[in-house]
Design goal:
The protein is of the alpha+beta class. Helices cover 19% and strands 43% of the residues. The mean pLDDT is 98. The structure holds the ligand N[C@@H](CCC[C@H](N)C(=O)O)C(=O)O. The ligand N[C@@H](CCC[C@H](N)C(=O)O)C(=O)O binds next to helix 2 and helix 4. Ligand LBFN2T5F binds next to helix 2 and helix 4. Its EC number is 5.1.1.7. Pathway: Amino-acid biosynthesis; L-lysine biosynthesis via DAP pathway; DL-2,6-diaminopimelate from LL-2,6-diaminopimelate: step 1/1.
Length: 264
C-alpha cells in the first residue's frame, strides 16, 4: 500500500506522497489526481531532518511544473507536521524556496519575478507588457512558472474557460502559460486563474497571485513595495513586495484527509 495525504491551500488541493515510495511518479501522480480530483500530486523528499525537502509536482495531465506557490505552502506544512520544524527550504525546479510555518499559515519566499523574454519564456525579443493578445491587454511574467495577467473590471463577468485557452496556447509562449484574470477591489485584487497542466480553473494559484501583484505594481495599480491582498475564489493570499525585488506568498493551509492506495 502507498499512503498519501491531501492538503489544500486556499482551495488549491494536492495529494502529498513521500518521494521514497517505490512508485513511477508520473503514472502514480496522474492516477491520484484523477481518483481524488485534486489539482496535483506533490512528491516530497525530506532531507537533513526536515531542514530541506525536494518537491516534485505532477499535474493532472502528466506534466511537471517547476514551481507551485500553494503547493509549496502545503509541502512545508506536511514537512513541518512530520519533523516539527517550522522553517523548511524546498528544493524546486525554480530554485530553493524558504518557507516559514506558523500554525496553519505558511509563508513562502518566492524569489524575484522575471519579465525578461528569455526567462518567461517568450518567443520574441521584447517583454510583453500590457499588450493586446487575443482581445485582452496581457502582461507576461515568470514567478517560478510562466503567467499571463490581464486586468478586467469584474473577474466573474468573463468566461474564463473560453478566453484562457487561446492565450494559454499562444505561440508567444513556447512553454505555455497560466492565465490570470485580475480586478481591483477595495482591499486589493480579485483573482481567477486557468492553470496549465490542470487545463482548467482552480480555486487558487499562488504563483498566479504573485504574478498579479507584481504586474499591478509594474503598471502602477499597486505600490512598488508593501503587502498586496489577492483574493482567488478559495480565500485571501497576502503577497509581499520587497525593496530588493523579491516577493513572498502567505496564506492558510489545511490537511483534509489521509488515505492509502493499493500497489496492485
Ligand atoms: N497552482 C500552482 C501553480 C502550479 C503550476 C502551474 N499549473 C504550471 O503548470 O505552471 C500555484 O499555486 O502556484
Amino acid at each position: 500500500m502507498t499512503s498519501y495525504d491531501v492538503y489544500h491551500g486556499t482551495g488549491n488541493d494536492f495529494a502529498v506522497v513521500d518521494a521514497d515510495e517505490q512508485v513511477e511518479k508520473t503514472a502514480f501522480g496522474t492516477d491520484l489526481c484523477r481518483s481524488l480530483d485534486v489539482d496535483g500530486t506533490l512528491f516530497l523528499g525530506i532531507e537533513d531532518g526536515g531542514e530541506r525537502a525536494t518537491m516534485t509536482l505532477v499535474q493532472p495531465d502528466g506534466s511537471r511544473a517547476a514551481m507551485c506557490g500553494n503547493g509549496a505552502r502545503c509541502a512545508a506544512k506536511w514537512v513541518s507536521e512530520r519533523t516539527g520544524r517550522d522553517v523548511v527550504t524546498l528544493e524546486t525546479g525554480a530554485g530553493p524556496r524558504r518557507c516559514t510555518v506558523e500554525g496553519d499559515v505558511v509563508t513562502v519566499e518566492m524569489g524575484t519575478p522575471a519579465f525578461d523574454p528569455d526567462d518567461v519564456p517568450l518567443a520574441r525579443e521584447a517583454a510583453l507588457v500590457d499588450e493586446a493578445l487575443e482581445g485582452y491587454d496581457v502582461t507576461a511574467v515568470n514567478t517560478g512558472v510562466p503567467h499571463a495577467v490581464t486586468f478586467v473590471d469584474d473577474v466573474d463577468a468573463v468566461d474564463l474557460a473560453e478566453m484562457a485557452p487561446p492565450i494559454r496556447h499562444h505561440e508567444v509562449f513556447p512553454e505555455g502559460a497560466n492565465v490570470n484574470l485580475a480586478a481591483p477591489t477595495e482591499h486589493g485584487f480579485d483573482q481567477r486563474t486557468y492553470e496549465r497542466g490542470v487545463e482548467g480553473e482552480t480555486q487558487a494559484c499562488g504563483t498566479g497571485a504573485v504574478a498579479i501583484a507584481v504586474v499591478a505594481s509594474r503598471l502602477g495599480l499597486a505600490p512598488e513595495t508593501g503587502e498586496v491582498t489577492v483574493s482567488p475564489p478559495g480565500g485571501d493570499l497576502a503577497i509581499g513586495l520587497r525593496e530588493d525585488g523579491t516577493t513572498t506568498l502567505r496564506g492558510p493551509t489545511e490537511r483534509m484527509l489521509t488515505g492509502e492506495v493499493s500497489d496492485a
